[in-house]
Specification:
Elements: E1 3-7, E2 14-22, E3 25-30, E4 34-39, H1 40-46, H2 51-64, E5 72-73
Parallel strand pairs: 4-5
Antiparallel strand pairs: 1-2, 2-3, 3-4
Bound molecules: zinc ion.
């Protein structure tokens, strides 16, 4: 893990980002959104979406995650 200070791509507030890079996925820990991962493709796309679409993507990732699994947002959720 290689944590840095960044901005949550969902709620646009200060969050921690792990940039150690598991393939093309980054992980965020946000005070509002919790812990989640997002693919590089989805991250580039989500910045152009409105807040409803961003929160919906996170909600889908959380629904698909198995218990104990970190939700991952991919481009199909956007
Ligand atoms: Zn957030």
């Amino acid at each position: 893990m290689n944590w840095t200070n960044d901005t949550c791509p969902i709620s646009i507030e200060p969050a921690q980002e792990d940039i150690s890079g598991i393939e093309d996925v980054v992980e965020f820990v946000c005070p509002t959104c919790g812990r989640f991962r997002i693919t590089g493709t989805a991250l580039a796309m989500i910045l152009h979406r409105d807040s409803d679409a961003r929160e919906f993507a996170l909600a889908q990732a959380k629904m698909r995650a198995e218990a104990g699994e970190i939700p991952t947002i991919d481009s199909s959720m956007l």
